[in-house]
């Protein structure tokens, strides 16, 4: 989530999900943006939904089975597609009961089917984004290391705090993914240092971001990442050894490590069956990824 457009939300959602899938973890992308960029990026044509429903149906039709609104787009990779009508959903939702919790309800019905559910939010703080924030456990904020981007993140954190107080007491900020990063510039280095200092000062404050971090590694600016959506391919299909693929693979390895530490801190004490249940059932064992090479072991 980031209410600013063009910061790398869709690129991160799609390619992080694809990297998780490549590592053997079932990942579902829900495209909450009426621009349907994540849907296009994953090779689907918005509007061609004869066989399955869309995120629009999940939000507006209480009788729809959310499992009928997601489709498999690759090994371990699933999509709840957007369509331009999703723009109308904001208006239609406005006077409905439970207008903030519709997505949460739908995801609860999908529980257990996927280990990771990644929500690609639109660049606004409207009802679609609110549904995302109410449904989510963690917020990941893609941004560029620029001074003005920093100001926008301040506003976003205030919104997250409000949502936590009023609608989703468990919501936390996992951290910031630096996108299109140019680590050589002094300006970028200063902005990153500011962000890290801000998060360090927030430790123990009880704020939603008190455990947040700047994710490592930053995602370097890489033209292959900008090219692959026009082919409806993830970076792993289009250019699996481009810097962009390597960065998202390493990011996924960190996300997996963190998540496994949370759900099974004493994995030795848990039976295989318990781990399977915690993971959401019946998923393949993950392939380890070497942080050095980014390759699957
Ligand atoms: P958002 O979803 O926040 O609007 P996008 O993910 O669509 O942002 O990214 C905006 C543009 O920048 C897109 O054209 C995308 O292909 C490009 N882009 C994103 N990340 C990178 C990167 N690391 N290197 C080069 N181009 C990128
Ligand atoms: Mg986007």
Strand order of the largest sheet: 2-3-1-4
SSE class: alpha/beta
Calculate Rg over CA atoms: 18 Å
Largest sheet: 4 strands, mixed
Question: How do the SSEs run, as a string of H and E?
Answer: HEHHEEHHEHEHEHEHHHH
Report the span from N to C terminus.
Answer: 31 Å
**Helical segment count:** 12
Percentage of residues in DSSP E strands: 5-15%
Task: Please tag this protein with its features.
globular; disordered C terminus; binds adenosine-5'-diphosphate; alpha/beta; 4-stranded mixed β-sheet; 297 residues; binds magnesium ion
Outline:
With about 300 residues, the chain is α/β, with parallel strands linked by helices. It contains twelve helices and seven strands. It has a four-stranded mixed β-sheet. Strands 5-6-7 form a three-stranded parallel β-sheet, with helices on one face.
Walk me through the structure.
The protein has a 4-stranded mixed sheet. The chain has a 3-stranded parallel sheet with strand order 5-6-7, covered by helices on one side. Helices cover 42% and strands 11% of the residues. With 297 residues, the chain is α/β, with parallel strands linked by helices. The chain has helices at residues 9-22, 37-41, 55-60, 86-93, 102-109, 127-135, 147-166, 186-202, 223-227, 235-238, 243-263, 272-278, and strands spanning 27-31, 71-74, 77-80, 116-120, 138-143, 172-178, 213-214. Helix 5 crosses helix 6 (127-135). It binds adenosine-5'-diphosphate and magnesium ion. Adenosine-5'-diphosphate (ADP) binds next to helix 1 and helix 9.
């Amino acid at each position: 989530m980031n209410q600013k457009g063009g910061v790398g939300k869709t690129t991160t959602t799609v390619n992080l999900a694809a990297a998780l899938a490549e590592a053997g973890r079932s990942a579902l992308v829900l495209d909450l943006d009426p621009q349907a960029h994540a849907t296009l990026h994953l090779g689907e044509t918005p509007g061609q939904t004869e066989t399955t429903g869309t995120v629009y149906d999940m939000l507006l039709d209480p009788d729809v089975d959310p499992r009928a609104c997601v489709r498999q787009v690759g090994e371990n990779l699933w999509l709840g597609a957007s369509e331009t009508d999703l723009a109308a959903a904001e208006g239609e939702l406005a006077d409905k009961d439970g207008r903030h919790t519709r997505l949460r309800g739908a995801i609860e019905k999908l529980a257990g089917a996927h280990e990771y559910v990644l929500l690609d939010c639109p660049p606004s703080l409207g009802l679609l984004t609110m549904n995302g924030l109410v449904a989510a456990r963690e917020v990941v904020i893609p941004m560029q290391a620029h001074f003005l981007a920093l100001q926008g993140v301040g506003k976003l954190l205030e919104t997250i705090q409000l949502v936590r107080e009023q609608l989703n007491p468990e919501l936390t900020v996992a951290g910031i993914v630096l996108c299109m990063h140019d680590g050589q510039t002094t300006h970028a280095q200063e902005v990153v240092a500011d962000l890290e200092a801000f998060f360090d000062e927030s430790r123990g404050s009880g704020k939603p971001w008190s455990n947040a971090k700047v994710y490592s590694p930053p995602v370097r600016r890489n033209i292959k990442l900008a090219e692959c959506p026009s082919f409806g391919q993830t970076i792993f299909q289009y250019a699996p050894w481009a810097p962009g693929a390597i960065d998202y693979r390493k990011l996924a390895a960190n996300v997996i490590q963190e998540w496994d530490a949370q759900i099974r801190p004493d994995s030795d004490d848990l039976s295989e069956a318990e781990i399977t249940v915690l993971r959401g059932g019946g998923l393949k064992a993950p392939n380890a990824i070497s942080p050095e090479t980014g390759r699957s072991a």
